[in-house]
Specification:
Number of domains: 4
CATH architecture of the largest domain: 3-Layer(aba) Sandwich
Order of helices and strands: HHEEHEHHEHEHHEHEHEHHHHHHHHHH
CATH superfamily of the largest domain: P-loop containing nucleotide triphosphate hydrolases
Shape: globular
Radius of gyration: 26 Å
Length: 448
Amino acid sequence: MNNVWESLKEALRSKVPEKSYSLWIKPITLLEHKESTLLLGCPNKFSLNWVMENYGEIMEERLREISEGSCSFHLKVMPAPKNVPKQALKDEPQLVLPHVPVTPRRGWRTLNHDFTFDRFVVGKCNEFAYSASKALALESSFPYNPLFLLANTGLGKSHLSQAVGHAMLQNKPDLRVYYITAEDFVNEMIWALKNNSIEEFKGKYRRSCDALLLEEVHFLSGKEKTQVELGYTLDALADDHKKIIFTSSVLPKDIPNLSKELYSRFNSGLIATLDMPDYDTRLKILEKKASEQNLHLSDEIVHLLAEKLPGDIRQMESALRCLKAKSELLKAKIDMDLAREVLQCHVSEESGSNQEDIRALVCRYFKIDPSVLQSKSRKAAHSYPRNVYVYLCRRHTSMTLEQIGQSINRNHSTIVYACEVIERKMKADAKVKNQIAFFGQRLRGVQA
């Protein structure tokens, strides 16, 4: 019967996503077999219900195939382990919750080995954020703790956050540095609540943490229970003078449905902004990234890329990787023609639209007056077209966040948040995705 269970697990591995398999299927244990029935043990009742609800049918189908219909299974909650020393958990440098894939001594996620201070390109757009991050990492007493890094996607806030972690661990390898996204923090807390492990969860972040690097805190919007728990955790860390970094694409005051306590904590330290890289910084970034990829580019090509790629750093990295791949796979010489060909995939379709075309298209489609885009109205019939306008300007023009904001009397953070709202809607609603694609086609028609 053990062979039957191993065969069933292998069959499920090919049908279930790897993360789901590790979290739900792998912890299941073969307890015993009675006649033609497999008795399988789940870690807890929540896990048992989840497995039966989501994977029960496919487990039955695969088991019938493997045993040619001669075998069935039954799930039960595994009995609690006996004689587990109470001190066992305390002996570990970091508390690990059972069956949660946490990397030892680094919190939920591991630090990216490329995200270090020496690989960060400093310019006028990010000099203050870089200096503050380095000071937090290297100075024993940082008077502006916590540090709140504010930037749009792809401008380096995660790089700096993790660089702090690397620098602290290099100086003191025994430090317990926890790097985690706000979303993962929420998920881990929910898991702990459902599995009666909330005290271990609290201990992990309040008593067994020397530095907390919490990414994307705007995700906490509206999550009241998590905000309360995080508030207590931050108070405990602050009282013990632990170092804390937050990152977000939205200012604390612009995060919707944020508790006063958490708002106060986010604003209690230093807020440092990373802006879009200026032309000179883009040159430095491209030169450094090209060097790291052993890509030899002429000054003419570097200047062309810096001129045509005003977006985020990931866009620049992508263009360089495409340039290298085309050169190697097609045995092509890296020249201006190849560089322009690569740029077509990144900017050509988006470079010719202008703000007025987008404004006219959105107002005509939604049958609203242009003044609605500048109004303070929060009605869905007004806010949704406004968010679409912002997203299209960001996507199809070279306007900066400030310029887009000025066109509708909004600030930088509101523009970032509006773009994220549309991106989330596109992922969740095919109708919205098709709608945005339609706008893109119409705008390209205008350019032509």
